[in-house]
C-alpha cells in the first residue's frame, strides 16, 4: 500500500498497524523537527510519540491530502503549543513560517519558463537587497552550497540560509506582480 | 528506506562528510521541503544524528501498535468469556430452580440424608508411647490399612485401649483391654491383632478407634461369641 492507501485504510478501519506504517518513515525527520523547537532529547522523543497518539484520533476524522506537509505543520504546531504551555519564551523565526505557507504554491511551476521569464527574473533580481542578491545568485546560478557562500561572503551560515529563503520569496512576489501587471 | 536515506544524508551534511555538490543538492531540496529543513535545523542543534535514540523511538512505536492489537484481542476474548459466563449464569439459575423444587418435594425424606463423615467411618489407631515401644513391621500406615480392610464387627464402635506383649515370633500375645469397654470391641480388637501383622519391640499399647454405629444396628452386633474366641487375659499391669 502506498501512503494514500494507508491513510484511507486507516481512516476506514482504524487499523493501528496501518497508521504505524504510515508514521514510521517520518519519525526521524519528526524527531529533528521536535528537537528544533523543544531542544531536549527526551522531550523530543516523547513529543514524537505523543503526536502519534493524537494522530490516532485526528486521522480518523480529518481528510488529509498531503500527509507529509500536513504532518510537518501539525507537529510544528504541537511543539509550539508545548512551548507555550511551558511559558518559555520562544524564538521562532517568522521568516521560516512565511516560507512555510508559500510552500504549496511553487510545486508545479518549474517547467514552464520561457525566455521572457528569465528577463523578468533578471529585473527582479535587481530589486533584492545586496545580501539576498548575492546569496541567491551564488546558490541558484553558481550552485554553491551554503558553506561555500558563507566562506565567500563572510556571512554567518544562518544568515546565508535566511537570505536565500527570503530572496527566493521576494523574487516570487516580484515575478507574480510583473505577471499581473502585464 | 527513503527515510533512512534522508537521515544518513542529514548526518553526513551536519558532520561535513558531503561533497559541495551533495551539500548544494540537499540545501536545494530543503528549500522546497520545509519539513526536511526543520529536521536538518533540529539535528544541527543536537550536533548530529543519534541512531540509538531513533531505534528506541521505533521500538516505542512498535510496542504502541502491538499493545493496541493485543488489547483488542484481549477485549475480543473478554466478549467470549462474557458469553460463556452468561451461559454459565443461566445454567446456575436453572440448577438452583431445580434444586429448589426438589427440596420442596423431598422434604419428608430429608432425615435419611444424615451421613457419617468419612473419618468416623474408619478405624483409627494411635500408638500410646507411655506404655509401649511396639511398631508394626510394615509400618503404622499399612497396619491401619489392614484394620480398615479387615474390620468386621465392632459393636457400636468407640474407643478402646489395648495393651499387649510381643512374642519371640513377633506376634502379639497377652492381649488385654484397658478399662471396661464394650465386649464386642474387645473381641474385634483382639481378633484383628491376632490375625494381623508382625511387630517389633517388646510391649505395645494402642488406642484403637472404631467408627460409631447407630443404635438400631447395635442388636446385630451383640452376637455372642464362643468363650474361646475371647482370648483376653485379665491381668493387673
From TrEMBL, chain A:
<dbReference type="Pfam" id="PF04542">
    <property type="entry name" value="Sigma70_r2"/>
</dbReference>
<dbReference type="GO" id="GO:0016987">
    <property type="term" value="F:sigma factor activity"/>
</dbReference>
<comment type="similarity">
    <text>Belongs to the sigma-70 factor family. ECF subfamily.</text>
</comment>
<dbReference type="InterPro" id="IPR013324">
    <property type="entry name" value="RNA_pol_sigma_r3/r4-like"/>
</dbReference>
<feature type="domain" description="RNA polymerase sigma-70 region 2">
    <location>
        <begin position="22"/>
        <end position="89"/>
    </location>
</feature>
<keyword id="KW-0805">Transcription regulation</keyword>
<dbReference type="InterPro" id="IPR013249">
    <property type="entry name" value="RNA_pol_sigma70_r4_t2"/>
</dbReference>
<dbReference type="InterPro" id="IPR036388">
    <property type="entry name" value="WH-like_DNA-bd_sf"/>
</dbReference>
<keyword id="KW-0731">Sigma factor</keyword>
<dbReference type="InterPro" id="IPR014284">
    <property type="entry name" value="RNA_pol_sigma-70_dom"/>
</dbReference>
<keyword id="KW-0804">Transcription</keyword>
<dbReference type="GO" id="GO:0003677">
    <property type="term" value="F:DNA binding"/>
</dbReference>
<feature type="domain" description="RNA polymerase sigma factor 70 region 4 type 2">
    <location>
        <begin position="119"/>
        <end position="171"/>
    </location>
</feature>
<keyword id="KW-0238">DNA-binding</keyword>
<dbReference type="InterPro" id="IPR007627">
    <property type="entry name" value="RNA_pol_sigma70_r2"/>
</dbReference>
<dbReference type="Pfam" id="PF08281">
    <property type="entry name" value="Sigma70_r4_2"/>
</dbReference>
<dbReference type="GO" id="GO:0006352">
    <property type="term" value="P:DNA-templated transcription initiation"/>
</dbReference>
<protein>
    <submittedName>
        <fullName>RNA polymerase sigma factor</fullName>
    </submittedName>
</protein>
<dbReference type="InterPro" id="IPR013325">
    <property type="entry name" value="RNA_pol_sigma_r2"/>
</dbReference>
<dbReference type="InterPro" id="IPR039425">
    <property type="entry name" value="RNA_pol_sigma-70-like"/>
</dbReference>
Amino acid at each position: 500500500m502506498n501512503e494514500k492507501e494507508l491513510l484511507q485504510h486507516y481512516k476506514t478501519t482504524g487499523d493501528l498497524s496501518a497508521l504505524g506504517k504510515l508514521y514510521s518513515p517520518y519519525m526521524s525527520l519528526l524527531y529533528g523537527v521536535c528537537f528544533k523547537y523543544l531542544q531536549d532529547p527526551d522531550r523530543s522523543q516523547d513529543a514524537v510519540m505523543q503526536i502519534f497518539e493524537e494522530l490516532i484520533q485526528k486521522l480518523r476524522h480529518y481528510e488529509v491530502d498531503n500527509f507529509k506537509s500536513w504532518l510537518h505543520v501539525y507537529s510544528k504546531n504541537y511543539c509550539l503549543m508545548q512551548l507555550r504551555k511551558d511559558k518559555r519564551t520562544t524564538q521562532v523565526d517568522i521568516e521560516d513560517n512565511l516560507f512555510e505557507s508559500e510552500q504549496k504554491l511553487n510545486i508545479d511551476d518549474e517547467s514552464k519558463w520561457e525566455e521572457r521569464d528569465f528577463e523578468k527574473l533578471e529585473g527582479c533580481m535587481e530589486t533584492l537587497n545586496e545580501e539576498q542578491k548575492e546569496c541567491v545568485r551564488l546558490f541558484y546560478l553558481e550552485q554553491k552550497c551554503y558553506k561555500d557562500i558563507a566562506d565567500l561572503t563572510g556571512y554567518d551560515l544562518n544568515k546565508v540560509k535566511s537570505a536565500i529563503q527570503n530572496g527566493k520569496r521576494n523574487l516570487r512576489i516580484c515575478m507574480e506582480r510583473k505577471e499581473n501587471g502585464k | 528506506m527513503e527515510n533512512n536515506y534522508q537521515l544518513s544524508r542529514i548526518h553526513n551534511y551536519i558532520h561535513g562528510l558531503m561533497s559541495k555538490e551533495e551539500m548544494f543538492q540537499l540545501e536545494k531540496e530543503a528549500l522546497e521541503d520545509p519539513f526536511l529543513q526543520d529536521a536538518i535545523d533540529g539535528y544541527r542543534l543536537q550536533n548530529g544524528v543519534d541512531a540509538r535514540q531513533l531505534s528506541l523511538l521505533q521500538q516505542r512505536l512498535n510496542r504502541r501498535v502491538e499493545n493496541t492489537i493485543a488489547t483488542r484481542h484481549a477485549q475480543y476474548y473478554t466478549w467470549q468469556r462474557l458469553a460463556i459466563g452468561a451461559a454459565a449464569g443461566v445454567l446456575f439459575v436453572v440448577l438452583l430452580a431445580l434444586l429448589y423444587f426438589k427440596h420442596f418435594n423431598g422434604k419428608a425424606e430429608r432425615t435419611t440424608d444424615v451421613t457419617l463423615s468419612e473419618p468416623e467411618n474408619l478405624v483409627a489407631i494411635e500408638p500410646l508411647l507411655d506404655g509401649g515401644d511396639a511398631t508394626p513391621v510394615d509400618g503404622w500406615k499399612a497396619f491401619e490399612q489392614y484394620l480398615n480392610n479387615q474390620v468386621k464387627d465392632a459393636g457400636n464402635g468407640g474407643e478402646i485401649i489395648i495393651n499387649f506383649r510381643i512374642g519371640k515370633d513377633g506376634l502379639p500375645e497377652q492381649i488385654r483391654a484397658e478399662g471396661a469397654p464394650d465386649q464386642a470391641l474387645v473381641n474385634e480388637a483382639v481378633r484383628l491383632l491376632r490375625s494381623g501383622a508382625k511387630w517389633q519391640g517388646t510391649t505395645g499399647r494402642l488406642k484403637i478407634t472404631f467408627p460409631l454405629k447407630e443404635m438400631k444396628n447395635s442388636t446385630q452386633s451383640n452376637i455372642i461369641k464362643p468363650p474361646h474366641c475371647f482370648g483376653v487375659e485379665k491381668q493387673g499391669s
